[in-house]
UniProtKB/TrEMBL annotation:
Subunit structure as annotated in this protein's UniProt entry: Homodimer.
Gene3D superfamilies linked to this entry: Ribonuclease Z/Hydroxyacylglutathione hydrolase-like
Record-linked InterPro entries: RibonucZ/Hydroxyglut_hydro, RNase_Z/BN
Keywords: Endonuclease, Hydrolase, Metal-binding, Nuclease, tRNA processing, Zinc
GO cellular component, one term: nucleus
Keyword Signal found: no
Gene Ontology MF terms in the entry: 3'-tRNA processing endoribonuclease activity; metal ion binding
Protein name: RNZ1 protein
Superkingdom in the source lineage: Eukaryota
Organism: Poecile atricapillus (Black-capped chickadee)
Keyword Metal-binding in record: yes
Cofactor(s) named in the record: Zn(2+)
Length: 209
């Protein structure tokens, strides 16, 4: 399995002319997985050797603006580069509770209609991931309003046995989120490659004694 990491932005709080807000891309077998999407991420993508159209998954660590303000714009740009295709697999977006509402509201208020499907999988944080006075319960956000056009997706709870959240699993790797402590609930992501059985050339071993 081939993995390649490209840092698009490593700045904090606000971008500078020489340093973008937080974003990095993991390229894996033709797919691009984006981790965080600060302001200007799509511009940084254009300057890189990567193709934004290959982004299939997006992982958001937390809901501070320097990690999410670039996301609605990036999705709109991807839509402009797309053609309607009902059979296309959705872009999977993972992040803290509240991310679905942020995206839906941003796109709805800006009259933006995406030509590709996307799903938002929200991680339910625990109260001990930030100072008590900063914790906000977003579990009831928009619940009173019907969101028939809102994006689908799962609501993921902490697995106490693993002390993590299972996000993705295929034949090659497992992706989990784990809790971090920050001013707002935050998550880190772990990509763990599954064991690969080796292959022995028995005859060559015999020839070598």
């Amino acid at each position: 399995m081939s993995l390649e990491i490209t840092f698009l932005g490593t700045g904090a709080a606000h971008p500078t002319p020489a340093r973008g807000a937080s974003a990095l891309v993991l390229r894996r077998e033709g797919q691009c997985w984006l981790f965080d999407c600060g302001e200007g991420t799509q511009t940084q993508l254009m300057r890189s050797h990567l193709r934004a159209a290959r982004i299939t998954k997006i992982f958001i660590t937390h809901l501070h603006g320097d990690h999410i303000f670039g996301l609605p714009g990036l999705l709109c740009t991807l839509s402009l580069q797309s053609s309607p295709d009902a059979s296309k697999a959705p872009v999977d977006i993972y992040g803290p509770l509240g991310l679905r509402s942020f995206l839906w509201r941003s796109l709805e208020l800006s009259h933006s209609q995406l030509l590709f499907p996307y799903t938002v999988h929200e991680l339910v944080p625990t109260w001990d991931q930030c100072p008590a006075e900063e914790f906000k319960d977003f579990s009831g956000l928009d619940r009173a309003e019907a969101l028939p056009q809102g994006p689908p997706g799962r609501v993921l709870h902490l697995d106490p046995a693993e002390d993590s959240y299972l996000l993705v699993e295929d034949e090659q790797l497992v992706v989990r989120a784990f809790r971090l402590f920050h001013r707002v609930p935050s998550f880190g992501f772990v990509l763990e490659e599954k064991p690969r059985p080796g292959k022995l050339n028995v005859q060559k071993l015999k020839d070598l004694g």
